[in-house]
Write a structure and sequence with these properties.
single chain; mainly alpha
Length: 272
Protein backbone atom coordinates (compact mmCIF):
# COMPACT_ATOMS: atom_id res chain seq x y z
CA UNK A 1 0.00 0.00 0.00
CA UNK A 2 1.40 3.39 -0.99
CA UNK A 3 2.18 5.79 1.82
CA UNK A 4 -0.44 8.55 1.66
CA UNK A 5 2.18 11.02 2.90
CA UNK A 6 4.29 10.51 -0.22
CA UNK A 7 1.88 9.40 -2.96
CA UNK A 8 1.71 10.77 -6.50
CA UNK A 9 -0.80 13.48 -5.55
CA UNK A 10 1.44 14.83 -2.78
CA UNK A 11 4.43 14.74 -5.13
CA UNK A 12 2.52 16.63 -7.83
CA UNK A 13 1.38 19.17 -5.24
CA UNK A 14 4.94 19.64 -4.02
CA UNK A 15 6.32 20.10 -7.53
CA UNK A 16 3.57 22.61 -8.32
CA UNK A 17 4.34 24.70 -5.25
CA UNK A 18 8.09 24.66 -5.89
CA UNK A 19 7.56 25.53 -9.58
CA UNK A 20 5.40 28.50 -8.55
CA UNK A 21 8.02 29.72 -6.05
CA UNK A 22 10.81 29.42 -8.63
CA UNK A 23 8.72 31.21 -11.28
CA UNK A 24 7.91 33.99 -8.84
CA UNK A 25 11.58 34.37 -7.90
CA UNK A 26 12.61 34.45 -11.56
CA UNK A 27 9.97 37.08 -12.33
CA UNK A 28 11.18 39.35 -9.53
CA UNK A 29 14.81 38.84 -10.58
CA UNK A 30 14.03 39.83 -14.17
CA UNK A 31 12.12 42.91 -13.01
CA UNK A 32 14.97 43.85 -10.67
CA UNK A 33 17.54 43.59 -13.48
CA UNK A 34 15.37 45.70 -15.77
CA UNK A 35 14.92 48.32 -13.06
CA UNK A 36 18.65 48.29 -12.37
CA UNK A 37 19.36 49.01 -16.04
CA UNK A 38 16.82 51.85 -15.99
CA UNK A 39 18.46 53.63 -13.06
CA UNK A 40 21.95 53.11 -14.43
CA UNK A 41 23.38 50.37 -12.23
CA UNK A 42 26.42 48.67 -13.73
CA UNK A 43 26.41 44.96 -14.50
CA UNK A 44 29.18 44.37 -11.97
CA UNK A 45 27.13 45.95 -9.19
CA UNK A 46 24.07 43.87 -10.03
CA UNK A 47 26.18 40.72 -10.34
CA UNK A 48 27.78 41.29 -6.93
CA UNK A 49 24.35 41.95 -5.43
CA UNK A 50 23.02 38.65 -6.78
CA UNK A 51 26.08 36.77 -5.49
CA UNK A 52 25.80 38.35 -2.04
CA UNK A 53 22.10 37.51 -1.93
CA UNK A 54 22.77 33.89 -2.84
CA UNK A 55 25.46 33.58 -0.17
CA UNK A 56 23.17 35.24 2.37
CA UNK A 57 20.50 32.57 1.81
CA UNK A 58 22.85 29.63 2.44
CA UNK A 59 22.68 29.84 6.24
CA UNK A 60 18.86 29.95 6.58
CA UNK A 61 18.64 27.28 3.87
CA UNK A 62 20.69 24.89 6.00
CA UNK A 63 18.36 25.52 8.94
CA UNK A 64 15.41 24.81 6.64
CA UNK A 65 16.98 21.51 5.55
CA UNK A 66 17.48 20.58 9.20
CA UNK A 67 13.81 21.34 9.88
CA UNK A 68 12.69 19.15 6.98
CA UNK A 69 14.84 16.31 8.31
CA UNK A 70 13.34 16.73 11.78
CA UNK A 71 9.77 16.58 10.45
CA UNK A 72 10.29 13.80 7.89
CA UNK A 73 9.93 10.79 10.27
CA UNK A 74 6.34 11.77 11.11
CA UNK A 75 5.14 13.67 8.04
CA UNK A 76 7.22 12.24 5.22
CA UNK A 77 9.42 14.51 3.15
CA UNK A 78 6.86 16.12 0.83
CA UNK A 79 4.69 18.08 3.30
CA UNK A 80 7.67 19.65 5.15
CA UNK A 81 9.21 20.36 1.74
CA UNK A 82 6.03 22.15 0.62
CA UNK A 83 5.64 24.08 3.86
CA UNK A 84 9.22 25.28 4.12
CA UNK A 85 9.48 26.12 0.43
CA UNK A 86 6.97 28.90 1.08
CA UNK A 87 7.34 30.16 4.64
CA UNK A 88 8.27 28.90 8.10
CA UNK A 89 11.17 28.04 10.39
CA UNK A 90 12.14 25.30 12.81
CA UNK A 91 10.58 26.90 15.89
CA UNK A 92 7.21 27.64 14.28
CA UNK A 93 6.80 24.54 12.11
CA UNK A 94 8.01 22.03 14.69
CA UNK A 95 5.96 23.58 17.50
CA UNK A 96 2.80 23.70 15.38
CA UNK A 97 3.23 20.14 14.09
CA UNK A 98 4.05 18.75 17.53
CA UNK A 99 1.04 20.42 19.18
CA UNK A 100 -1.29 19.28 16.40
CA UNK A 101 -0.18 15.63 16.34
CA UNK A 102 -0.33 15.33 20.13
CA UNK A 103 -3.79 16.90 20.28
CA UNK A 104 -5.15 14.82 17.39
CA UNK A 105 -3.85 11.57 18.89
CA UNK A 106 -4.62 12.39 22.55
CA UNK A 107 -0.92 12.25 23.35
CA UNK A 108 -0.42 8.82 21.80
CA UNK A 109 1.80 10.01 18.92
CA UNK A 110 4.68 12.37 18.32
CA UNK A 111 6.92 13.67 15.54
CA UNK A 112 9.42 10.87 16.02
CA UNK A 113 7.16 8.17 14.55
CA UNK A 114 5.27 8.02 11.22
CA UNK A 115 1.72 9.38 11.19
CA UNK A 116 -0.44 6.57 9.82
CA UNK A 117 -3.85 8.19 10.29
CA UNK A 118 -4.96 10.42 7.42
CA UNK A 119 -7.14 12.62 9.65
CA UNK A 120 -4.23 13.29 11.99
CA UNK A 121 -2.01 14.08 9.01
CA UNK A 122 -4.61 16.50 7.62
CA UNK A 123 -4.97 18.16 11.03
CA UNK A 124 -1.22 18.69 11.28
CA UNK A 125 -1.11 20.07 7.74
CA UNK A 126 -3.87 22.61 8.43
CA UNK A 127 -2.40 23.71 11.77
CA UNK A 128 1.04 24.26 10.22
CA UNK A 129 -0.43 26.15 7.27
CA UNK A 130 -2.80 28.38 9.24
CA UNK A 131 -0.15 29.14 11.87
CA UNK A 132 2.12 30.57 9.17
CA UNK A 133 -0.67 32.21 7.14
CA UNK A 134 -2.32 34.19 9.91
CA UNK A 135 0.60 36.61 10.44
CA UNK A 136 0.48 37.47 6.74
CA UNK A 137 -3.12 38.58 7.25
CA UNK A 138 -2.83 40.11 10.72
CA UNK A 139 0.34 42.17 10.22
CA UNK A 140 -0.92 44.38 7.37
CA UNK A 141 -4.06 45.12 9.40
CA UNK A 142 -2.51 45.50 12.85
CA UNK A 143 1.16 46.39 12.32
CA UNK A 144 0.60 50.15 12.62
CA UNK A 145 -1.22 49.69 15.92
CA UNK A 146 1.44 47.29 17.19
CA UNK A 147 4.20 49.75 16.28
CA UNK A 148 2.33 52.55 18.01
CA UNK A 149 2.11 50.44 21.17
CA UNK A 150 5.79 49.53 20.99
CA UNK A 151 6.81 53.16 20.47
CA UNK A 152 4.65 54.18 23.42
CA UNK A 153 6.30 51.54 25.60
CA UNK A 154 9.78 52.62 24.49
CA UNK A 155 9.07 56.27 25.21
CA UNK A 156 10.10 59.49 23.59
CA UNK A 157 13.78 58.74 24.08
CA UNK A 158 13.61 56.22 21.26
CA UNK A 159 15.62 53.71 23.26
CA UNK A 160 15.43 50.40 21.40
CA UNK A 161 16.75 48.29 24.29
CA UNK A 162 13.25 47.33 25.39
CA UNK A 163 12.34 46.23 21.87
CA UNK A 164 15.48 44.13 21.63
CA UNK A 165 14.81 42.65 25.06
CA UNK A 166 11.24 41.67 24.13
CA UNK A 167 12.40 40.07 20.88
CA UNK A 168 15.11 38.08 22.67
CA UNK A 169 12.66 37.06 25.41
CA UNK A 170 10.20 35.74 22.82
CA UNK A 171 12.93 33.73 21.11
CA UNK A 172 14.21 32.34 24.42
CA UNK A 173 10.66 31.32 25.30
CA UNK A 174 10.38 29.28 22.11
CA UNK A 175 13.76 27.63 22.65
CA UNK A 176 12.91 26.93 26.30
CA UNK A 177 9.88 24.90 25.19
CA UNK A 178 12.11 22.62 23.12
CA UNK A 179 14.66 22.32 25.93
CA UNK A 180 11.92 21.41 28.42
CA UNK A 181 10.67 18.71 26.04
CA UNK A 182 14.19 17.30 25.75
CA UNK A 183 14.71 17.26 29.52
CA UNK A 184 11.30 16.26 30.88
CA UNK A 185 8.98 15.32 28.02
CA UNK A 186 6.96 12.13 28.34
CA UNK A 187 7.27 9.46 25.71
CA UNK A 188 4.36 7.84 23.92
CA UNK A 189 3.28 4.32 23.17
CA UNK A 190 0.42 2.44 21.56
CA UNK A 191 -1.38 -0.54 23.08
CA UNK A 192 -2.75 -3.05 20.59
CA UNK A 193 -5.99 -4.98 20.97
CA UNK A 194 -4.11 -8.04 22.19
CA UNK A 195 -2.54 -6.01 24.98
CA UNK A 196 0.94 -5.71 23.50
CA UNK A 197 2.51 -2.28 23.83
CA UNK A 198 4.66 -0.55 21.21
CA UNK A 199 6.79 2.23 22.62
CA UNK A 200 7.78 5.10 20.34
CA UNK A 201 10.91 5.99 22.34
CA UNK A 202 10.36 9.70 21.80
CA UNK A 203 10.46 10.97 25.38
CA UNK A 204 13.19 12.73 27.31
CA UNK A 205 16.12 10.47 28.07
CA UNK A 206 19.75 9.83 27.34
CA UNK A 207 19.47 10.53 23.61
CA UNK A 208 17.55 13.79 23.92
CA UNK A 209 19.86 15.18 26.62
CA UNK A 210 23.00 14.08 24.77
CA UNK A 211 21.76 15.73 21.56
CA UNK A 212 20.90 18.91 23.44
CA UNK A 213 24.25 19.08 25.22
CA UNK A 214 26.36 18.42 22.13
CA UNK A 215 24.48 21.07 20.11
CA UNK A 216 25.01 23.66 22.87
CA UNK A 217 28.70 22.79 23.24
CA UNK A 218 29.38 22.98 19.50
CA UNK A 219 27.43 26.24 19.22
CA UNK A 220 29.47 27.80 22.04
CA UNK A 221 32.77 26.62 20.56
CA UNK A 222 31.93 27.94 17.10
CA UNK A 223 30.62 31.26 18.45
CA UNK A 224 33.73 31.83 20.59
CA UNK A 225 36.02 30.85 17.71
CA UNK A 226 34.24 33.20 15.32
CA UNK A 227 34.39 36.03 17.86
CA UNK A 228 38.06 35.63 18.83
CA UNK A 229 39.35 35.12 15.29
CA UNK A 230 36.86 37.49 13.68
CA UNK A 231 35.52 34.87 11.28
CA UNK A 232 32.34 36.53 10.07
CA UNK A 233 31.06 33.66 7.90
CA UNK A 234 31.35 31.26 10.85
CA UNK A 235 29.04 33.47 12.92
CA UNK A 236 26.29 32.89 10.37
CA UNK A 237 26.94 29.16 9.98
CA UNK A 238 27.40 28.34 13.69
CA UNK A 239 23.76 27.41 14.32
CA UNK A 240 23.16 25.13 11.30
CA UNK A 241 26.54 23.43 11.83
CA UNK A 242 25.69 22.73 15.47
CA UNK A 243 22.27 21.40 14.49
CA UNK A 244 23.62 18.97 11.90
CA UNK A 245 26.49 17.92 14.18
CA UNK A 246 24.07 17.17 17.03
CA UNK A 247 21.84 15.11 14.73
CA UNK A 248 24.86 13.18 13.48
CA UNK A 249 25.99 12.58 17.04
CA UNK A 250 22.54 11.26 17.94
CA UNK A 251 22.63 8.83 15.01
CA UNK A 252 26.10 7.67 16.04
CA UNK A 253 25.01 7.12 19.64
CA UNK A 254 21.97 5.12 18.57
CA UNK A 255 24.25 2.80 16.58
CA UNK A 256 27.03 2.22 19.12
CA UNK A 257 25.11 2.16 22.41
CA UNK A 258 23.22 -0.90 23.64
CA UNK A 259 19.50 -0.63 22.84
CA UNK A 260 18.49 -0.51 26.50
CA UNK A 261 20.76 2.48 27.11
CA UNK A 262 19.91 4.31 23.87
CA UNK A 263 16.17 3.92 24.58
CA UNK A 264 16.39 4.87 28.24
CA UNK A 265 13.84 7.55 29.17
CA UNK A 266 13.31 9.47 32.40
CA UNK A 267 9.52 9.23 32.46
CA UNK A 268 7.21 6.36 31.62
CA UNK A 269 5.60 6.67 28.17
CA UNK A 270 1.89 7.40 27.88
CA UNK A 271 -0.01 4.31 26.75
CA UNK A 272 -3.30 4.62 24.85
Amino acid sequence: MMDFRENSFMLALGLTVVAFILAQSAAFLIRAVKRGNQIGLSKSVMKNTVIQSVLFTVTPALAIVATIIALTPALGIILPWIRLSVIGNITQETAAASAAVEAASNGAASLSVPITDEKTFATVMWVMTLASSLPLVILPLCLKRIQHGMNKAIGKSGDSKLTDTLAVAAFIGLIAAFIARALAGKGTGIQAADGTVTYNYDGAGLMSVATLVISVVIMLILSKTAEKRNIKWLQNFAMPISMFAAMGFAVLLSQILPEAIAHFEFRAPIIS
